[in-house]
Amino acid sequence: MSLRVPNHIAIIMDGNGRWAKEKGMPRTYGHKAGADTLRKILTSCGELGIKYLTVYAFSTENWKRAKEEVDTLMFLFKTYLKNEKKLLMKNNVKFLVSGRKEGVSKDLLAEISKLEEATKGNTGITLNIAFNYGGRAELVDAIKEIVKNNEKEITEETVEKYLYNQLPDPELLIRTSGEMRISNFLLWQIAYSEIYVTDTYWPDFNKDELIKAIESYQKRDRRFGGVK
């Protein structure tokens, strides 16, 4: 692996439901498998020297899904928070969540806060989970805070100060399952991200697939609007 590894990778973890359907299983089975994949990919990212990983776990639009599926996603996330603490601490992972709190149960919010607090001093890879997240919602919330704080000068730096978590912009955005859209994910932050789409469903995404995405990124000529 070349030295030019992205500092920050963002992933739209898509295809859990279709993966399960092809196996004759309910969508919830796919989400459980997807949670296992996240654990493996986080470990792989740490091994490859990536400093930040942001994953799209639950969007503000996902509330429209069937109640059984939403309830399963909430249960899985709560279970993940409880079960992963020991591993996150062992691997020096800092844990963050980006998204709105409205609509999320108090006990789930409490688990999120506990894990963020427990890992805040860790200095390895940062795992940022976009949960109850929407890119437009994030910008609306930032604007509300800018107005509330009576900011006199509005610059890009001003807006960035009020985003959910002040992380470096991702250099690489990966979307699994072949869909060619960004689905309201990190609209501000991915302005100059390289995009990599794979037909592989998220439960089948592994370290080899991750390396393919990074190798594709390494071949890109990143000019940021300029000319070399």
Q: Note the total helix count.
A: 7
Q: Which percent range fits the helix content?
A: 40-55%
Choose one word for the global shape. Answer: globular
Distance between the termini: 25 Å
CATH structural architecture: 3-Layer(aba) Sandwich
CATH class: Alpha Beta
Total strands: the figure is 6
The tally of structural domains comes to 1
Give the rounded overall mean pLDDT.
Answer: 94
CATH topology: Undecaprenyl pyrophosphate synthetase
Please indicate the percent range of residues in DSSP E strands (runs of 2 or more): 5-15%
Topology order in helix (H) and strand (E) letters: EHHEHEHEHHEEH
Largest sheet: 6 strands, parallel
For this structure, what is the CATH homologous superfamily? Decaprenyl diphosphate synthase-like
Structural class: alpha/beta
Radius of gyration: 18 Å
Oligomer: single chain
**Poorly predicted residue ranges:** none
Write the SSE topology:
Blueprint: E1 8-12, H1 16-22, H2 27-48, E2 52-59, H3 67-90, E3 94-98, H4 106-119, E4 126-133, H5 135-148, H6 156-161, E5 172-175, E6 194-197, H7 207-218
Parallel strand pairs: 1-2, 1-5, 2-4, 3-4, 5-6
Helix pairs in contact: 1-2, 2-3, 3-4
Active site: 14, 62
Binding site for Mg(2+): 14, 194
Family: Belongs to the UPP synthase family.
How would you sum up this structure, described in words?
It is a single chain. The chain has 228 residues and is of the alpha/beta class. The protein has one domain: Decaprenyl diphosphate synthase-like (Undecaprenyl pyrophosphate synthetase), CATH 3.40.1180. The chain has helices at residues 16-22, 27-48, 67-90, 106-119, 135-148, 156-161, 207-218, and strands at 8-12, 52-59, 94-98, 126-133, 172-175, 194-197. The longest helix is centred in the middle third of the chain and has 24 residues, at 67-90. The chain is globular and about 55 Å long.
